[in-house]
Amino acid sequence: MEQIHWVRRRWQQLVAADSGRGQYSAPTALPTKSSPVLHNTQLLTGKRRTVIARHGRHQQEYHSISKGCQGNSIRTTKYSLLSFIPMNLFQQFHRVANLYFLFLVMLNWIPVVEAFQKEITMIPLVVVLIVIAIKDALEDYRRYRFDQKVNNNIVTVYSG
């Protein structure tokens, strides 16, 4: 029952949001509950894209349009090889606990307030950062493999 209320509330939030991204006209054959008018205009979130067949009759049209465009492959990974360490550290230090341990490490480098050896206070922070980085790397690699699987699927293309 809670799921139904959650779905209803989420749907109301999506319908109420006037983001102005794109518009969608409902088919004339399907009337909606909200209005008896058949041409109901609703907001559609997200980007629109045009897919043109690469092979077959439309090959010339594809080459003329796709010169300045990227491919339509899916990429859901967060990181690249170059951006993994900086972005991961940036995301990890948004957590309050990691900032607390970093503050303790920095405070321990001041000789007046030094409580332990400098290296000992760094161990918990370094271990947590390494474990979370390994977890994020494995998760991102799984996303990469799934993206490759989806992008290499064979599909049927309808061309007019």
From TrEMBL:
Residues 66-121 form the P-type ATPase N-terminal domain. The chain crosses the membrane at residues 97-116, 122-138. It comes from the Eukaryota. One of its GO terms (cellular component) is plasma membrane. One of its GO terms (molecular function) is ATPase-coupled intramembrane lipid transporter activity. Pfam families: PhoLip_ATPase_N. One of its GO terms (biological process) is phospholipid translocation. The keyword Transmembrane applies. Keywords: Membrane, Transmembrane, Transmembrane helix. SUPFAM superfamilies: Calcium ATPase, transmembrane domain M (SSF81665). Coiled coil: none annotated. This is P-type ATPase N-terminal domain-containing protein.
